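Two entries, shown back to back:
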Amino acid sequence: MTEVEKRVHFRVVRFMTESGVKLHIKSVPLATACVLYHKFFKENSLNDYDPYLIGTTCIYLAGKVEEEHLKLRDVINSCYRTLHKSKPPLELGDTFWALRESVAHCELFVLRTLKFKVVFSHPHKYMLHNLKYLQDWFDPYKWEAMPVARTAWSLLRDCYHGNMCLKYKPQHMAVAVLFFALQCHGAEVPYHKYADTPWWLVFAEDVTLDIIKTIITDIIAVYELENTV
């Protein structure tokens, strides 16, 4: 993937995230939308399709996949307002109906491209499990003083601006993000130095420190890419 393509995908995922916030979409359906988007462009070229139309379609499709009901009208209006901030809200007319028809046709095309494989396992459930157990290992006062959980969730959300979701196991991503969040706050897992087993192997038996460092490097690359967008 070229640097130009990476920047385009970053912008589109940012557009999808902003539109998702306006639609009050939960984190998992939004993650599904991003995975659908990245998987589509893994199989297709940016030169052949409008990435913002694909992004809008993936939001609508993710709502169906994750059983979070989204009206197509609301998706179109929110995405239009996000993409055209200086224009007035979209009214029922030729533009709206053209967009509606485009998204409806594009939805079927995306499904066919992905061979109807649109159900994914996300790092979120593993992250929730990991944070719960990690909190129990820390002194309550020290844990409350560090926003590790908030940092971890923010890092995980930002991961979807790149294609890490296609490269790594969700269990590994959850561990790596938590590892990075702890590093960001200069925190160490209590008694880790004296344990026979590294704490990350408790959460994912097949993860290695090299995998964790590689994922963290990719996360940092996403933030460096943001500076160029």
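entry 2 starts here
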Amino acid sequence: MRIKVHGSPFSGATLRVVAALHEKELDFEFVSVDMKSGAHKQQPYLSLNPFGQVPAFEDGEFKLFESRAITKYLTYAYKSKGTALVFEDLKQKAIRSVWMEVEALQFDPPARTLTWEIFLKGMFGMETDMAIVEENKAKLAKVLDVYEARLGESKYLGGEIFTLVDLHHLPQLHMLMGTRVKKIFEERPCVSAWCKDILARPAWEKTVALQNKA
């Protein structure tokens, strides 16, 4: 298989790449990395991602790491395949870029912390720190207030079509919507409708199936 994704089905960053591959309707091989044994911190994996994080990506001889860089590559390298995920208009591209930065810098930090505390810690036999949970719920709620206003103006964060902006949110949304934190999403009508829309996409359902098989 030309395209390979090395990662864990319980890694949000890995699922972000897998979702993009399904949206682009591309065939790929998923190579599971045993993170519990520390395989991601050893060779040969470090030759693919020198920071010892997942995912790593191969397209023939071309190699990448960092999930958002990989999804951008897939969008442009396979432009004619599957869902477009980008705008052609320069101003629309600029607006999409703004919200991609918002996802990475404003939404993801508290969302990722909550996912770790509520969803993942239990898998490693660790206890949830409720003080950290409450602190990051408050931070995320402020971000979602901005999202509520934005989604009152357009169907998706980047505009009127589903793009990488929305796709990049999917892993954290999926995990958090299965926890008590989902209330802060459901309290905001536009955010709630957006979540239901993007989480129901066929490409995401295929992505989640990978997690269910693990």
